[in-house]
Amino acid sequence: MACTVCLNDENKPVKMRKERDTFGELDVPDDKLYGAQTVRSVMNFPIGGIEERMPYPVIVAFGILKKAAAKVNIEFGLDKKLADAIMQACDDVISGKLYREGHFPLVIWQTGSGTQSNMNTNEVIANRAIQILGGKLGSKDPVHPNDHVNKSQSSNDTYPTAMHIAVAMELRDRLMPGLVALRDTLDGKAKEFDKIIKIGRTHLMDAVPLTLGQEFSGYATQLTYGIERICSTLPRLHYLALGGTAVGTGLNTRIGFAEKCAKEIGTLTGIPFESAPNKFEALACHDAMVEVSGALNTVAVSLMKIANDIRLLASGPRCGLAELMLPENEPGSSIMPGKVNPTQCEALTMIAAQVMGNHVACTIGGSNGHFELNVFKPMIVANVLRSIRLIGDGCQAFNKNCAVGIQANVKQINKIMRESLMLVTALNPHIGYDKAAQIAKTAHKEGGTLKDTAIKLGILTAEQFDQWVKPEDMLGPK
Question: Fumarase C C-terminal domain: from which residue to which, for each copy (predicted)?
Answer without folding.
Answer: 423-475
